Amino acid sequence: MTAVWIASDWHLGPESPPGHGRLARAFLARARAAGVRVILNGDVFEDLFWGADRAAAAHPGVAEEVAALAREGRLERTSGNHDPEAGLPRLELSAPGVGRVLVAHGHAVDPLNASPLGRFGDGISRRFGRLALVRGAATLAEASARALAGPRIVALFRRRCLALLEREGFDLGVFGHVHAAHLVPGDRYANSGALRGSSLGYLELDAGGPRLRLLREEDLGTADPAPAAPVSR
User: Fold this and answer.
1) Is residue 117 predicted with pLDDT exceeding 50?
2) What angle do helix axes 60-71 and 18-34 make, rounded to 10 degrees?
């Protein structure tokens, strides 16, 4: 099978650190050079706060690489809660040695996101997100929730994703949303990680099975377009 690289949760917008744009562009350029298929699994651009046009315009190099891969028929996107118009809600793959694979951002099974409070918060962010006060409040609320209940949130998210996979008969699910990379042998649930700090996490899927990889800022000085180093688990 053609290798597939799955990445999510870049949240690129006008206020992103400059290094995040460089990492995202390098990931896409390496994917083009390697001839692989790319799935961007939600929350790639920060459309929720900025709107799709302004978020992408802040990173023209990334937008150009996305468009180039799409023209070649080697890029697909799913929608996340921060870019709900980006693509389909989910994609299904068939991977030799793995079986049926579901690729979805995962916010649909997040009880907070689906709650009236979550929908209200998204509505406020979508309407007033360009105001610094609203963005700051939303960021603080998310950071506080992660600090107080981060591991429990991720564990609950995983359980809900596993229930979905069991119910629909998938052998593996690759999700995003919680920004926590996860790949354990024998576990149906996988998470490709996120673009955070000075590194971009993604999941590589080919005939050898799934692997987590990490592209770091220090890797960008090399001319080698090969995949980033595997993540030790």
Assistant:
1) no
2) 20
**Angle at the Cα of 71 from the Cα atoms of 34 and 87, rounded to 5 degrees:** 100
pLDDT given at position 132: 66
What residue spans define the domains of the chain? 4-230
Q: Provide the whole-model pTM.
A: 0.86
- Dist. CA 21–CA 23, nearest whole Å: 5
Q: Dihedrals φ, ψ of 203, to 5°?
A: -115, 130
Q: Classify residue 33 by burial, with Cβ atoms within 10 Å: 0-12, 13-18, 19+.
A: exposed
Give the span between the Cα atoms of 201 and 49, in whole angstroms: 23
Query: Helix (H, G, I), strand (E, B), or coil: what is residue 124?
Result: helix
Q: Which structure tokens are listed for 92?
A: 């299904």
Instruction: Provide the CATH topology of domain 4-230.
Output: Purple Acid Phosphatase; chain A, domain 2 (3.60.21)
The answer to whether 44 and 76 are in contact (CB under 8 A) is: no
Please check whether residue 174 is in contact with residue 203, taking contact to mean a CB–CB distance below 8 angstroms. Answer: yes
